[in-house]
Amino acid sequence: MSEELQKKIEVVWRALQNEHEYCSFEELNERVVFDEDLSKEDRFKAVVDAVCKYTINTKDKNWIAKLYGGGTDMSFVAEMIISYFNQNCHTYSSSPLFTFAEEQILRKIIGFVGYEEGASGLFLPGGSYCTLIGMICARYKKFPASKRAGLNHPIQVITSVNSHYSIDKGAIMMGMGTDNVIKIDFEKTTPEEFEDIVVKNNVFMINSTSGTTSEGTIESVEKFSRILKKYNIWHHIDACVSGIALFSNKYRYLTAHFKHAHSITIDCHKCLNLNQQCSLLLVKDGGLLSDCSRITAPYLFHKDSEHDIANRSFQCGRRADGFKLWFCDQLDDLDAQATLMYDRNARFKKIIADDPRFTSVLEYSMTHTCFQLVTDEEVQIHEITAALRKEGVFIEYHRDYFRAVAVNDNIDEDVFKSILERIIVVHKQLSEK
Fold it and tell me: What pLDDT shows up at residue 298?
């Protein structure tokens, strides 16, 4: 690392210690303006100061809004290593250690799932993209000729009414169209009704969610298993939220059904709190994962390309996100990290249950603390969260309830209680206007 780069990093580090401020887009348009007459060094400092001041710090103890936190120290170190070497994980010859690390950590997670020999996987840029590739694998399994000839007839995917919008996006990207995404209520739909839907359509995949984004619900398709097998329907599990239970000896029982799925998506940058992004797709039939995308490219893949990961990827440019998880697995206690997330959420839910000013919503959620304010005053919930943001307190809402996700490691029970007090105060202020 050059001396000049080290000096720049020191400037960034000092700027990161400053206070952060939340601004509207219009305010940023006025404030993030730089004097053209500044020297190169002063302009660098001005730009860095502005970026660090107006960027939300997800490590802040008042950040409890989203399914990601500030990231662990070890994943930050891994990010530095990845950025410094700037390698492309497409061929082994260009990134040997990163390729080795990705394959090693995939083997470990496949073992947690309980897949047999022949399973495979990939680290991909985001859970939505992982799910898309899972959908493409499912289509290829049912219609192998689609790789060369495409399809000239509609096909359908079944998912729940609570599923992530990535299924709809995947249908758009695959050329299926969202009209061919059939959404049902898994709890209310009977096996007979489900089979009727299958018979009347050309269903190639069902998607279930292990930890829905808005509620943390773990869905089951067990009652449809006979029908799925009868009609050769691929089962994909979107486990972006709750898949990290695989790493916890205490909570791994939540993933016992994973081994029956054909493919699984997991986001380790969510509840495992690694730096973004760290998403992976697991496929029970690893050969199919490779076959559905493999294209001859002799300028890149040579005779000694046994470990070239891009051979089973739709991407050529691949970031070393697998190394990040491997690195943290070597140096952090991922079992403790995953367990802490679930335990912390349980403690937060107890705080809500013990406070008469609030009422719990969605008691079954293992990853979300959802609650309502007990009040007769009509104050819109979005007004409360907007006012809190201006104070530097970030909490999300869904419909008519608050949704706190205990990913951020800097939040403990005392901090959570202080956030609840701020909700009470802000609500009172707004109701008196």
Answer: 65
71-110 per-position pLDDT tens digit: 999 999 999 999 999 998 888 878 999 999 999 999 999 9
Condensed to tens digits (0 to 9), the pLDDT of residues 208-221 reads: 999 887 777 889 99
**pTM > 0.90:** yes
Q: What is the DSSP letter of 372?
A: E
- Cβ atoms within 10 Å of 36's Cβ, excluding its own: 6
CA dihedral 340, 393, 395, 131 (to 10 degrees): -70
**Does residue 64 contact residue 395 with C-beta atoms inside 8 Å?**
yes
Integer-rounded Cα radius of gyration of the chain: 24
Q: Is 282 helix (H, G, I), strand (E, B) or coil?
A: strand
Six-digit token pair at 214?
């808005």
Sign of CA dihedral 57, 63, 65, 68: positive
Is there a cis peptide before residue 277, judged by omega within 30 degrees of 0? Answer: yes
Joined tokens for residue 146:
């689609």
Instruction: Round to whole Å and give the CA distance between 425 and 369.
Output: 20
Average pLDDT for the chain: 92
